[in-house]
Specification:
This protein is of the alpha+beta class. 15% of the residues lie in helices and 38% in strands. Strands 1, 2, 3, 4, 5, 6, 7, 8 and 9 form a 9-stranded antiparallel sheet that branches. Bound molecules: 2-acetamido-2-deoxy-beta-D-glucopyranose. Residues 50, 52, 68 line the site of 2-acetamido-2-deoxy-beta-D-glucopyranose.
Length: 163
């Protein structure tokens, strides 16, 4: 009674050997979506704060990034941007293409931003029929959903005059 058979013992040993490697899959020091962007020479500011997870196929550049919710803010005080809770596309050095989930409001129309290209110190956002360029300095920090690039922590309410 109570004998451990050889096969039971082997299963026991095997499960101890397998367990650590399956735990190692959830690696906490994997790079963030923001550092991935930087590794492709993009500024972090083209991605709003709040990415909860992402996936990336390094061989093709295919990616998805996930937010808890959709996200809207104004870009440099002019255009309104909207990010869905899931965005996707293909990333390569200096180029994002076949983007889905990112829209810009131009006049009264919401247009999909389908391509973002970094050209030296400029960022070019293309909606297919036309594109707009912005200085890269505008994107050194990630915007926040809601207040975008113009969040002022010290501001409680009302307008703050600045010149
Ligand atoms: C996303 O939602 C989860 C669950 O509600 C929450 O714990 C987490 O803080 C949220 N993340 C962000 C970035 O808002």
């Amino acid at each position: 009674m109570g004998f451990i058979t050889m096969s039971n013992l082997l299963i026991l040993i095997a499960s101890f050997l397998i367990l650590p490697s399956s735990l190692a899959v959830t690696d906490s020091d994997s790079p963030t979506a923001y550092s991935i962007l930087q590794s492709y020479n993009f500024p972090v500011g083209i991605l709003p704060k709040g990415v909860v997870s992402y996936d990336l196929d390094k061989s093709t550049g295919r990616f998805h990034a996930y937010f808890n919710d959709s996200c809207s803010f104004n870009l440099v005080g002019s255009y309104q941007l909207n990010y869905k809770s899931v965005i996707s596309g293909y990333i390569s050095e200096n180029k994002l293409k076949k983007l889905t989930g990112v829209k810009v409001k131009v006049l009264f129309l919401w247009l999909n931003i389908v391509e973002v290209i970094r050209n030296k110190e400029e960022m070019e956002f293309s909606v297919g029929i036309t594109s707009a360029n912005f200085a890269i300095q505008e994107f050194l920090e990630s915007p926040q959903c809601g207040c975008g690039f113009e969040c002022d922590d010290s501001k409680s309410e009302g307008f703050v005059a600045s010149s």
